[in-house]
Amino acid sequence: MARELDIDPSGRALDCDVIVIGGGVNGVGVARDASLRGLKVALFERNDIAFGASGNSSGMIHGGPRYLTYDPAVTHSSCLDSGHIQHIAPHLLFRIPFLMPIFKSGALMSRIALTGYDAFFDLYDAYQPLKAGKNHTRLSADEIRTLEPGLVGGSAGGVTFDEWGIDGARLCIGNAVDARERGAEIRVHCTVTEILRREDGSVYGVRFRDRVSGESSTRTARLVVNATGAWAPITASLGGLASTAARIRPGKGIHVFLDRRLTNYAIVAYAIDGRQVFLLPWQNMSVLGTTDDDYYGDLDHVVATSDEVNYLFQAVEHVFPAVRSARAIGTWGGVRPTLYAWGPNEDQLSREHQVVDHAQHGADGLYSMIGGKLASYRVFAEEMTDVLAKRLGNTAAKRSHVAPLPGGDEQVDPMLLVVRGGMEAVTATRLEYRHGGRSLRVLERMQQRPREAAVVCSCEPVTEAEIRYVVEHEFAHDVHDVARRTRLGLGACGGMRCALRCGRIVADATGRSPEAGQHMALDFLVQGARRRSAAVGPAQARQEALTLSALQAEVGSRSDDS
Amino acid sequence: MSIAVIGAGIAGTAAAHELARQGERATVFHQHAGASALYSGALDFEPWDRAAELAAIDAQLGQFSSELGVWELGAAAARVATPEGNLRPTRGRDRSLLDLERCTGKRVAVVDLERDDWDALLLARSWATSEWAKTTHTRFEPVRVRALHANFERRTSAYDFAAAHDAPERCAFLLAALRSVAQAPDAWLLGPWLGVERAVAAELSASLGVLVGETTSAPGGAAGARFENARDRLLARVAHVERGRVVRLTPIGTGFRIETEAGVAAEFSSVVLATGGVAAGGIALERSFERRGGTGFRLSFDAPVALELDHEVVEGVSSLASVDFVERGLGTLLEVGIAASADGSVPGNPGLFAAGDAIAGRSRTALVAARSGLGAAQRALEHARSAR
């Protein structure tokens, strides 16, 4: 390379090797992989880690059975990577067995369909050992009724298959924390306002603004990665590139969650337009998902509408009628950054992610990560890091598939937390799920300061010690951030019992005033109510009204305080 | 024919009381209080409650309050502490709530005990940093008190913990715990835990010789339970109580026919409708796919009244699902109600008077509800007497 890669236009040495823009799963994945290989990394996230699609996905690390018929190599690599993720973060994965009832009119068609699926999953079984999955089972109608009495319509029988669920936000946090512990600078609530370019068009860093303090600054680097998901075209334009340089087809997907697990199996259902949707038992609740619609609205404020909610209920109702009387307590929504295509559906593409080298657009040193999904994040990050490493002459070994994520290196028996910390069993189990071996660090806090053992959010449950831990060690800055990391305030009460208390704790832990704590709690409650409102039913409407009136009466406004 | 009151929250209870005061024993139909049982114990204060109206505190309201026996009303604002960390003004309060205006410049001890829903350290700090505390030089200090009887009490509900203190021996236990604190403060501030039947706060104040009181309650806490108990005692004295859900209100000739779910039917010359808004359950939200007919909001029972929102009659919504709150805003849930004129009379239904949160666009405060209950009772009585 003829140009001086290592200095900025004023001749100063560059701050780091790689700047990553975006704290979604791809961004933190690259930050971690590059840090593991000894590169100096800085990451900037406009909102919070896992704010976008990564924290709002279906929460699955699936093996990609859909590719099996035309591109089995993808299925193989997906399953292999599912195994890798299990190996580096065993605490974060939980088994989700799927149940697929067969709906075909007529006995003959049904039998043909069932035999077809049976044969198909026979093939898939060959890959299951890669991800410690179980083989599929062919079920009769009676067996389905026994397993899931609430299910109707599977009169021709069905098949089961095995997948893994994950808390996407925790996966992102794990990657970000690991990157920082390996030397990366992670800046949350910092938005990049400009991608800096030399006269020859090459990229040498970014200008960013801290959205909390309002201060602007620059950071320079040899290479810049645009890993901003659905924001990718906007980010590209910050470097003076046409937004089509990092083109995506933004697809909004929403999920509705219910207050409890309704089934043991994930149920496959079909929506009015023939799309597959699921009713998933996911952590301690049930999730209905998902929709897929082109979306060109504000990416910072993606909210499910009641018609989208209805679409999902309508679909699942056909196979599981009781879902109608179940209690929906909220929604989440995100925007997939799918590969741009005019006409063909993106799921017909054999690979769903690609690295764009913007040298072709005159911006040498800038790369965009386009597409991708939660389940393939590690492979995608590795591919991106390979490009960076080659460019930078780095030959360190790839280790992101063997080096454990924080908390993944040590198995902790939740009963130990119960015995040593006096926690209730549910509290201990949930804590261990989120933090793995690092739950011992939270336990240690409680032992040193017994006051912090108090359960702040009883729905999840979340202790004060955990709130303080995620503020101190996991970049949480407000109540939204704490909720993303701990699921605080996402239960049936929508945070009414805990948001203000959490706000006080966060304000205290970050040296801000109690009033600031109240404001962040209020913001959380108001935003949360907006997200819940689409799922609202008659009973829930009362809850929302109560939330509002209680808020009005109790919080009022301190500016009136005189 | 006599007068009926539907609903026994603050508005309905005030109406029944006012009718009795004027010599009319009303029939009260109810199935527990709704939103009123969830109130915080603070009655109102503008602009804290963002009230568009302030109920006049007059002799009539004062009489209802003293008859109810759990409120303290005053023209001068009291100031109470909230578990959200604020010090809020209020013109009236549940009398167990500590009035900080009586503690200005003093040392208020915040009882520090190991309940999960209580964090004396951060609460005391939050109250202490408020403008009011600074200007009045009132101090808030957490003081460790061994007031838990058993470890499980860390996690019992605030209501259960409050109810436990109705037992005299439990009250004595708390008294001893407060007494054992070395340096007695000028006042004791506790969470909403001081009984739901007896006036535990007053008893402790008398025994200790210093003020003892509570913060406001979260929804479903002690203040609402105290109102319900007081309401039951009051209604037993002044009204016929008919427990059960009203399913239909039909105009007949010069009056109304009321039917309950249990099959009870009776006729009345005038009716006070105090069934509350969405929060109380008086108004329900529907989805079209539930196939009960109509979309959007409806009254929770059959009655010939129209609902109103932002001064427009609520009709079906043009969505397959329901009202779109992302578009309309959640405030809709608090605003929607019966279309009624200022005095509560319902257009097209002579003899029918709405009260409390059931009316569209009203401020949802305790005093506004009580005031409108008193007013509706007055109008219902006039109507019934002119019909005779």
Give a description of the structure.
The complex is a heterodimer of chains A (562) and B (388). Chain A is of the alpha+beta class and 562 residues long. Chain A folds into three domains: 16-53 and 169-247 and 351-392, FAD/NAD(P)-binding domain; 94-164 and 249-348, D-Amino Acid Oxidase, Chain A, domain 2, CATH 3.30.9; 414-554, no CATH class. In chain A, 35% of the residues lie in helices and 22% in strands. Residues 558-562 of chain A have low confidence and may be disordered. By secondary structure, chain B is of the alpha/beta class. Chain B has two domains: 2-37 and 226-387, 3-Layer(bba) Sandwich (FAD/NAD(P)-binding domain), CATH 3.50.50.60; 98-214, Rossmann fold (3-Layer(aba) Sandwich). Chain B has eleven helices and 18 strands. In chain B, strand 7, helix 7 (200-208) and strand 8 form a beta-alpha-beta unit. The longest helix of chain B is centred in the last third of the chain and has 22 residues, at 366-387. The radius of gyration of chain B is 22 Å and the shape is globular. At the A-B interface, helix 7, helix 14, helix 15 and helix 16 of A face helix 3, helix 4 and strand 13 of B.
CATH domain topology of the largest domain in chain A: D-Amino Acid Oxidase, Chain A, domain 2
Task: Provide the β-strand percentage band of chain B.
Answer: 15-25%
* Alpha carbon gap, first and last residue of chain B: 8 Å
Oligomer: heterodimer
Q: Portion of residues in helices of chain B?
A: 25-40%
Element order of chain B: H for helix, E for strand: EHEHEEEHHEHHEHEHEEEEEEEEHHEEH
Taken together, the total number of domains of chain A comes to 3
Based on CA atoms alone, the radius of gyration of chain B comes out at: 22 Å
Number of domains of chain B: 2
Number of E-type strands of chain B: 18
Largest sheet of chain B: 7 strands, mixed
> DSSP helix count of chain A?
16
Ends distance of chain A: 67 Å
Low-confidence stretches of chain A: 558-562
CATH architectural grouping of the largest domain in chain B: 3-Layer(bba) Sandwich
The name CATH uses for the topology of the largest domain in chain B is FAD/NAD(P)-binding domain
CATH homologous group name of the largest domain in chain B: FAD/NAD(P)-binding domain
Beta-strand residue fraction of chain A: 15-25%
